[in-house]
Write a structure and sequence with these properties.
Layout: H1 2-22, E1 36-39, E2 46-55, E3 66-68, E4 88-93, H2 107-122, E5 125-128, E6 144-148, E7 154-163, E8 168-177, E9 182-183, E10 193-195, E11 199-200, H3 201-213, E12 231-232, H4 244-254
Parallel strand pairs: 2-12, 4-5, 4-6, 6-8, 9-11
Antiparallel strand pairs: 1-2, 2-7, 3-10, 7-8
């Protein structure tokens, strides 16, 4: 009788646990880390576009030495997303999140270079705001560049919040994946060079900033040399500079 009573007492608890684990729903306030366009919870009319920058397939590790090469041009024009930044835009850096292999003191230098690459073709004036310790995306009035956690094979994820009716951008965050091996090669010291077994921070960031500007990813071989080519590679440095197609793409957004 005691065993039977215990069974009756345990059975509802088991059902409750089972239901809680199988019927749990995803957090409606969380923006998926999947490339696409989403509603921003609590902000009617605001959309969030998520870009996921992945490593190029068949990108095996090699000895981590300094390799140099060429920076080919491309005339393939980048596609537009439908938004643009205002004339003046402030960004916020998270130096404390930077991997030691890159160097926290170097972040301001290569981020400044990466932003400046996009200025001449867009007439957007970028300025560095106060530093932050935030390493996650959020609609908080800070446009951050930080290293944090991203899922799977994402080298970096950029979240752009904008109004579809006006194309006005209100918040952008780029999160670089701390799980990968990173480095930074100062091009003034070693032109057209990068470490062969790591991802160059300036190279990947410059690509991500193209999404801030309002440009799409491209995956066909026509765009292989464009800064907006959708895959990233180890030892890559050519995204540090814009191709003719990148320049024409951003001019088409702002001119």
């Amino acid at each position: 009788m005691k065993k039977l009573l215990a069974s009756f007492l345990i059975f509802p608890i088991f059902l409750s646990f089972f239901a809680g684990t199988t019927l749990a729903k995803p957090d409606p306030n969380k923006i998926p880390e999947i490339a696409g366009i989403y509603d921003d919870p609590g902000h009617p009319g605001l959309k969030v576009r998520v870009f996921v920058h992945r490593e190029r397939p068949s990108n095996p590790p090699v000895n981590n030495t300094l390799a140099c090469g060429e920076d080919p041009d491309s005339s393939a024009p980048d596609g537009k997303t439908g938004w643009k930044l205002p004339t003046n835009w402030t960004y916020n850096l998270n130096p404390t999140s930077v991997p030691s292999s890159v160097g926290s003191d170097n972040l301001a230098t290569f981020a400044g270079i990466a932003f400046s690459v996009w200025e001449p073709s867009s007439n957007v004036n970028f300025s560095r705001g106060s530093d932050t310790t935030i390493d996650r995306q959020a609609y908080d009035g800070k446009n951050i560049v930080a290293w944090g956690r991203t899922s799977g094979s994402a080298l970096a994820v950029t979240y752009t919040r904008y109004y579809t009716d006006t194309g006005r951008v209100v918040d952008v965050d780029t999160i670089m994946n701390k799980k990968f091996a990173w480095s930074w090669t100062n091009q003034s010291d070693h032109p057209l060079c990068a470490l062969t077994n790591t991802y160059d921070a300036q190279n990947i960031l410059t690509h991500e900033l193209g999404h801030w500007m309002g440009l799409e990813d491209h995956y066909t071989t026509d765009y292989l040399h464009n800064t907006m080519y959708g895959y990233g590679s180890k030892a890559e440095f050519k995204k540090d500079t814009l191709t003719t197609g990148d320049e024409n793409g951003v001019k088409a957004v702002y001119n």
